[in-house]
C-alpha cells in the first residue's frame, strides 16, 4: 500500500507511516507505533514509499532488509531445477537523496525502470537472483512486489560510502542463515606502492542454503570497475585475494560454492566475442583458490556459444548508441565448484532489453539439476588430498589427473618451496653470474644437495618436478604479459624478434620471454643435473640384499624344493605384472601430461596470436587513418597552391589586358598627333618649295597648303584628346593657326569655305614613319607585358612559398609524427608476430621437462607404493634399478634440450608472419611523398628585400608618347617670342637654293627624330624631373594663351576663323591670328 492511497498526515516535510516488522508500509498515521522494533518513518514520493529506522539520518538511504525474514515454502519455478541469476541493474536507486553520480530520476522514471527489470526477471524465472548496483531494501521490495511478492529481499550493507551501491538477493528459497560479509583487508604492495595502503571487499555478500541435502554457499561479488586502469587492476586483485579466502574456507568445509556477479574482468579461457584478454589475474585467482595450478571452480559461461557470450555494453566512443560489433564484453561471470559442474544442465545470457534504457548489463542464469546435485561427489580440499593416505590429486579437467606422493618432511618441503620461489624470481633479475656461464648449479640447489643425499628419491623427484612446473607457469605468465615499448636502435635489416640483445635496456630484457627463458634454462639445468647426480648416487650405492634377512623374511629355510620353485615363479609373475602395470600407467601418465602440455602451449599461442591480431588491426587502422590525413593535407596544400597560382595568373592577365588596352588607346592618339605633325612638316616643305616658284605656281601651292592646313586644323580641333596629350595638342593647334594665318595672307582671294575635301593624301614617307612607330610600339608593349607577367609569377611563387611553409609547419607538428608512429607500430606488430611464432618453441623445452619429470616422479611414487624388499624394507632392488635407469635416461635426454644458445637462435630467426604489405606500402608511399613535399616546400621563406623604389609598376602611357618629337614645331619658343615683332621683308627671288626660308621659322626644318624605344619612365622614379616638366608645360601653355590673345587683337574681333572655335578637352581654343612674319 502506498502513501498516496490513504489520507496523509504530514509533519513538516515528512509523511509518517506505520510499518510492519518486514519494513512494509501499512498506513499513514500521525505518530509511530509504540513498539521500538517498529518505530520507523517513511519518505513518500508518489508510489515510492518504504520504512526507515527512526534513528537513521534523513539523508541516508543505506537500509538493510529486516533480519527476521518471512519463511517462504521452497517452491521452485521449474520442478527439479534450481535456477540462479545474476544481474547488474545499473543504478537501481529510488530517486530520493541519491548521490551525485546517480542519474537523477523522478518517480515516474523509477517506476518505469522497476517495471522493465521485473519484466526481464519474470522471463528468466529464477529462484535466486543476485543484484548489483541497488540502493537499499526499499527498492528491492518494490521489485519483489512487481514479481507477485514471491521473493524475500536479502541485503547487507557494504562499505561503498561514495557511490552507495549495494549487492543484494531476491530469493524464493529460504537461506539457512542471515547474510554475512567479510571485513578482511589486504595490503597493496605493487607498482611502486608503499606499505600501509590496503583494500577491502566493499560490495559482496555470503548466503548459505541447503539444497537437495547439500550445503550451498553463494558468494555475490561486485568488484572494482575500470578493467584497463592499473590502479583498479591492483585493487581488484586485492579484492580477489579476499574472495579466495572465503571460497577456500567454504570448500574446506565441504560446501558447494557458486560465485556470481559483476567481476569487471575477463577470463582467458572463456573469451567473449571481442576476444578481450584479462587485464589482471582475478579470474585465475577465483578459479584456483589454493594456487596449486589446478582449478577449483569452473566458469559455467564456457557452455555458451562465443557469439552469444557477452554480458555488458561498453560504450567505447561515448556516443550513447549500442554498436553490436565492437561494444560487447564479458565481465560478468558465474563460477561453480567442480562438484557442481556435472549438475549444471543449462546456462544462458538473456539479451532482450535495450542496454541504453534499462541497464548496460544483461542478466546471466544457470540451472542446476537437483537429482544430479544430490548424487554428485563432494569436494575434497587440497589439504586432504595431500595427506599420505590420499595418493591421487584429481582436477576437474579430463586428462589432467596427476599422481604425487607428498610424504616428505615439512622441512624438506619448505626448502623445496624456497627453491621454487627463488628460481621463479631469478627470471627477472637480469643478472648473469659467472657460474651460469660455466653451467654451475644454482646455490640454493647446492644447499639442498646434502638434504637430497639423505632424502627419499620420491621427494627429490617431487621437488625438481615442482620447480620445473613453477618455471613453466612463470614463463607462461611472462609470455602472456603485454609487451612494453622497446625503441629500435638496430639496423633496418636486422631480424625481428621479441627481443634482440642490444636493442632494449636491461630493465626491459628482464620482462621478455626470450630473456626469461634464457635465464631459466641454466637454473633448470643445474637442478636437473643435481637430480641426475642424486639418482646416479642412489643407483651406485644401492645396498646389497642381506640373504640371511631374506631367508628369515621369506621363510625359505622352511620351504621344500617345490615350494621354492613355486615361490620363485610367483615372484617372477609379480615382477612381470608390475612391469606391465607400470608400463601401462606410465603411458597413460605421459598421454595425459602430453595433452596438458599441448593445451597449455596452444592456449599461450592462441592468446598471443589473438592479441597480436587485435593490436595489429587496431594499430593498422589508426596508422592508415593518420597517414591518410597527412596525404589529404598534402593534397589540400597542393590544391591551395594551385589556386594561388591561378589567382595570381588571373590578376596578371587582368593587368595585362588593362595595360594593353590603355597603351593601345594612347598609341592611337599618339599616332594621330604624330601624323598631323608629319603633315605640317610636309606642308612647310611645300611652302618652301612655293617660295621659289613662279607667282602662279606659288599661288596654287599656297592655296593647296591652305586647304590642307584648314582641314587638318578643323580635324585637330574636333579630335578628343586625353589629358596626357593636351600640351602637345595645344602646341599643334597653335602651330596650325599660325601657319593658316600666314597662308591666308598669301592667298587673299581664298574663302573661308576653301577646305580640303576627302581624306588627306598619305605619302610613302609618312606611311613608313607611322609603320616604324607601330612596330616599335608593339615591341615595347610585348616587352612590358612579359615583364609584368614575370613580376606576377614572382609574387605568386612567394605567396605559394609562404602558404606552403605555414602548412608544412602545421603538418610537421600534428600530422607528420604519424609516419614515425606508423613505423613504430609496424615494428611492434612484427615483434608481436615473432613473439607469437616462437612462444611455443621457447616454452616447449620447459613444458616437456615439467611433463616428463612429473611422469618420472609418478614412476618412483609407484615404486615406493609397491611391494617392498623383505630384507631391506625398501623397494625391490630390481624394480628400483630399472626405475632409476629409466629416469636417468630421461634426465640425460632432457639435459641436452636445455640449451640457452638455442633459445637465442630461435629468437634471432626472421619473422614470416608479421609482414603487412599493404601497411608497409602505404607507409613507404607516404614517407616518400612527404620527403618530396618537404624538398619542394622549405619550412622557411627568406624575408623580402625592401628597396627605395619598391615593386615596379607599369604606366599606361606609351613610351612613344613621352618622347614624341614633333620636328615641325621646333623653334616654337623663338616664334612665340618674336610673334609681336614686325615680319621681315621677303628675301630676293634669286636666293641661294641651299637655304630657302621656312614658312613658320627662320631656321631650316630639322630632321625627323625617330621615336624612342626605351621603356617609359617609372612614375615616381624621378620626382624632380617630373616637376620640372610640369612647370615647363604650364609656362608654355601660358605663353600660348597670351600669343592667341595678341593674334586675335591683330586679326580683329570679327575674324572668320572665330566660327571654327570649339571646345577641346573642356577648354575653348581660339584660332590664332596671323601676325607679321617674314616673307
UniProtKB/TrEMBL annotation:
Positions of the UniProt region annotated as Disordered: 971-1079
Q: Give the transmembrane region(s).
A: 402-423, 444-464
Compositional bias segments (type: Pro residues): 982-996
Give start-end positions of Polar residues composition bias. 1052-1064
Query: Which segments show compositional bias classed as Low complexity?
Result: 997-1021
Instruction: List, for all copies, the residue spans of the domain called Endonuclease/exonuclease/phosphatase.
Output: 86-361
**Pfam family, any one:** Exo_endo_phos
Put simply, this protein is called SH3 domain-containing protein
Key words of the record: Coiled coil, Membrane, Transmembrane, Transmembrane helix
InterPro entries membership: Endo/exonu/phosph_ase_sf, Endo/exonuclease/phosphatase
Q: Name one GO molecular function term.
A: catalytic activity
Q: Which residues form a coiled coil?
A: 620-676
| Top-rank lineage group of the source organism | Eukaryota
Amino acid at each position: 500500500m502506498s502513501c498516496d492511497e490513504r489520507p496523509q498526515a504530514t509533519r513538516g516535510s515528512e509523511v509518517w507511516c506505520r510499518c510492519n516488522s518486514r519494513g512494509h508500509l501499512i498506513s499513514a498515521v500521525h505518530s509511530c507505533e509504540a513498539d521500538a522494533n517498529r518505530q520507523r518513518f517513511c519518505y513518500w514520493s508518489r508510489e515510492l514509499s518504504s520504512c526507515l529506522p527512526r534513528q537513521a539520518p534523513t539523508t541516508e538511504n543505506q537500509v538493510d532488509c529486516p533480519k527476521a525474514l518471512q519463511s517462504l515454502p521452497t517452491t521452485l519455478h521449474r520442478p527439479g531445477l534450481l535456477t540462479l541469476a545474476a544481474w547488474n541493474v545499473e543504478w537501481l536507486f529510488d530517486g530520493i537523496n541519491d548521490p551525485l553520480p546517480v542519474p537523477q530520476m523522478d518517480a515516474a522514471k523509477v517506476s518505469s525502470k522497476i517495471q522493465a527489470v521485473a519484466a526481464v526477471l519474470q522471463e528468466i524465472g529464477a529462484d535466486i537472483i543476485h543484484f548489483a548496483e541497488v540502493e537499499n531494501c526499499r527498492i528491492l521490495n518494490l521489485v519483489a512486489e512487481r514479481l507477485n511478492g514471491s521473493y524475500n529481499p536479502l541485503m547487507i550493507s557494504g562499505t561503498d560510502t561514495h557511490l552507495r551501491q549495494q549487492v543484494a538477493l531476491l530469493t524464493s528459497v529460504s537461506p539457512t542463515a542471515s547474510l554475512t560479509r567479510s571485513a578482511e583487508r589486504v595490503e597493496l604492495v605493487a607498482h611502486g606502492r608503499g606499505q600501509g595502503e590496503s583494500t577491502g571487499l566493499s560490495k559482496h555478500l555470503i548466503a548459505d542454503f541447503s539444497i537437495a541435502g547439500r550445503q550451498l554457499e553463494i558468494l555475490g561479488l561486485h568488484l572494482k570497475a575500470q578493467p584497463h586502469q592499473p590502479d583498479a587492476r591492483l585493487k581488484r586483485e586485492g579484492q580477489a585475494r579476499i574472495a579466495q579466502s572465503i571460497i577456500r574456507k567454504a570448500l574446506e568445509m565441504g560446501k558447494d560454492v557458486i560465485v556470481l556477479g559483476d567481476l569487471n574482468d575477463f577470463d582467458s579461457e572463456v573469451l567473449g566475442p571481442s576476444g578481450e584478454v584479462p587485464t589482471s589475474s582475478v579470474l585465475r585467482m577465483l578459479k584456483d583458490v589454493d594456487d596449486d595450478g589446478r582449478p577449483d571452480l569452473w566458469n559455467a559461461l564456457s557452455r555458451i556459444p562465443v557469439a552469444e557470450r557477452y554480458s555488458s555494453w561498453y560504450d567505447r566512443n561515448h556516443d550513447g548508441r549500442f554498436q553490436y560489433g565492437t561494444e560487447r564484453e564479458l565481465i560478468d561471470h558465474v563460477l561453480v565448484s567442480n562438484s557442481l559442474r556435472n549438475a549444471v544442465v543449462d546456462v544462458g545470457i538473456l539479451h532482450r532489453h535495450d542496454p541504453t534504457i534499462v541497464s548496460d548489463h544483461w542478466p546471466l542464469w544457470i540451472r542446476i539439476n537437483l537429482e544430479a546435485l544430490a548424487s554428485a561427489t563432494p569436494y575434497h580440499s587440497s589439504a586432504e588430498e595431500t595427506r599420505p593416505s590420499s595418493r591421487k590429486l584429481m582436477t576437474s579437467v579430463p586428462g589432467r589427473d596427476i599422481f604425487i606422493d607428498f610424504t616428505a618432511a615439512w622441512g624438506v618441503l619448505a626448502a623445496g618451496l624456497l627453491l621454487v620461489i627463488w628460481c621463479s624470481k631469478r627470471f627477472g633479475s637480469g643478472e648473469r653470474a659467472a657460474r651460469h656461464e660455466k653451467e654451475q648449479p644454482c646455490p640454493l640447489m647446492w644447499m639442498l644437495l646434502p638434504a637430497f643425499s639423505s632424502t627419499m628419491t620420491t621427494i627429490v623427484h617431487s621437488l625438481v618436478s615442482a620447480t620445473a612446473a613453477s618455471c613453466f607457469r612463470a614463463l607462461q605468465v611472462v609470455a602472456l604479459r603485454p609487451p612494453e615499448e622497446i625503441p629500435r636502435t638496430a639496423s633496418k635489416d636486422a631480424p625481428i624478434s621479441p627481443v634482440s640483445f642490444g636493442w632494449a635496456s636491461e630493465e626491459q630484457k628482464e620482462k621478455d620471454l626470450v630473456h626469461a627463458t634464457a635465464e631459466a634454462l641454466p637454473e633448470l639445468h643445474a637442478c636437473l643435473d643435481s637430480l641426475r647426480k642424486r639418482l646416479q648416487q642412489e643407483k651406485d650405492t644401492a645396498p646389497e640384499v642381506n640373504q640371511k634377512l631374506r631367508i628369515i623374511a621369506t621363510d625359505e629355510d622352511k620351504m621344500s624344493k617345490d615350494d621354492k620353485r613355486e615361490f620363485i615363479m610367483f615372484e617372477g609373475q609379480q615382477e612381470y605384472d608390475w612391469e606391465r602395470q607400470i608400463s601401462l600407467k606410465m603411458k597413460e601418465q605421459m598421454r595425459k601430461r602430453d595433452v596438458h602440455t599441448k593445451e597449455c602451449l596452444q592456449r599461450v599461442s592462441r592468446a598471443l596470436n589473438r592479441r597480436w591480431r587485435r593490436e595489429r588491426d587496431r594499430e593498422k587502422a589508426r596508422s592508415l587513418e593518420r597517414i591518410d590525413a597527412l596525404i589529404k593535407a598534402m593534397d589540400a596544400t597542393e590544391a591551395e597552391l594551385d589556386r594561388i597560382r591561378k589567382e595570381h595568373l588571373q590578376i596578371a592577365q587582368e593587368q595585362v589586358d588593362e595595360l594593353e588596352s590603355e597603351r593601345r588607346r594612347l598609341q592611337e592618339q599618339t599616332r594621330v598627333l604624330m601624323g598631323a605633325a608629319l603633315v605640317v612638316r610636309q606642308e612647310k616643305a611645300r611652302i618652301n618649295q612655293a617660295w621659289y616658284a613662279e607667282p602662279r605656281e606659288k599661288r596654287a601651292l599656297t592655296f593647296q597648303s591652305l586647304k590642307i592646313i584648314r582641314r587638318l586644323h578643323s580635324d585637330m580641333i574636333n579630335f578628343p584628346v586625353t589629358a596626357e596629350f593636351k600640351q602637345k595638342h595645344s602646341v599643334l593647334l597653335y602651330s596650325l593657326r599660325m601657319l593658316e594665318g600666314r597662308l591666308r595672307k598669301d592667298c587673299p582671294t581664298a574663302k573661308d569655305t576653301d577646305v580640303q575635301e576627302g581624306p588627306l593624301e598619305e605619302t610613302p614617307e609618312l606611311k613608313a614613319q607611322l609603320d616604324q612607330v607601330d612596330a616599335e610600339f608593339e615591341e615595347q608593349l610585348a616587352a612590358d607585358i612579359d615583364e609584368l607577367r614575370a613580376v606576377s609569377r614572382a609574387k605568386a611563387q612567394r605567396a605559394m612559398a609562404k602558404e606552403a611553409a605555414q602548412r608544412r609547419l602545421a603538418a610537421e607538428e600534428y600530422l607528420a609524427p604519424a609516419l614515425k608512429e606508423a613505423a613504430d607500430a609496424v615494428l611492434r606488430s612484427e615483434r608481436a608476430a615473432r613473439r607469437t611464432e616462437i612462444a611455443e618453441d621457447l616454452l616447449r623445452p620447459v613444458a616437456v621437462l615439467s611433463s616428463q619429470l612429473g611422469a618420472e616422479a609418478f614412476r618412483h611414487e609407484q615404486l615406493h607404493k609397491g611391494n617392498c624388499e623383505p630384507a631391506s624394507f625398501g623397494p625391490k632392488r630390481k624394480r628400483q634399478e630399472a626405475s632409476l635407469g629409466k629416469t636417468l635416461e630421461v634426465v640425460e635426454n632432457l639435459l641436452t634440450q636445455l640449451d640457452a644458445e638455442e633459445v637465442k637462435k630461435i629468437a634471432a630467426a626472421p619473422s614470416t608472419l608479421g609482414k603487412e604489405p599493404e601497411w608497409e606500402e602505404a607507409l613507404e608511399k607516404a614517407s616518400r611523398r612527404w620527403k618530396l613535399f618537404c624538398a619542394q616546400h622549405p619550412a622557411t621563406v627568406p624575408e623580402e628585400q625592401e628597396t627605395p623604389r619598391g615593386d615596379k609598376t607599369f604606366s599606361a602611357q606609351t613610351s612613344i608618347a613621352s618622347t614624341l618629337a614633333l620636328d615641325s614645331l621646333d623653334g616654337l619658343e623663338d616664334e612665340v617670342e618674336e610673334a609681336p615683332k614686325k615680319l621681315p621683308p621677303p628675301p630676293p627671288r634669286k636666293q641661294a637654293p641651299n637655304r630657302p626660308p621656312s614658312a613658320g621659322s627662320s631656321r631650316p626644318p630639322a630632321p625627323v627624330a625617330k621615336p624612342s624605344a626605351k621603356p617609359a619612365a617609372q612614375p615616381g622614379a624621378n620626382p624632380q624631373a617630373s616637376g620640372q616638366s610640369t612647370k615647363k608645360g604650364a609656362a608654355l601653355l601660358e605663353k600660348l594663351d597670351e600669343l592667341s590673345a595678341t593674334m586675335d587683337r591683330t586679326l580683329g574681333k570679327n575674324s572668320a576663323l572665330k566660327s571654327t572655335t570649339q571646345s577641346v578637352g573642356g577648354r575653348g581654343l581660339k584660332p590664332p591670328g596671323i601676325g607679321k612674319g617674314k616673307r
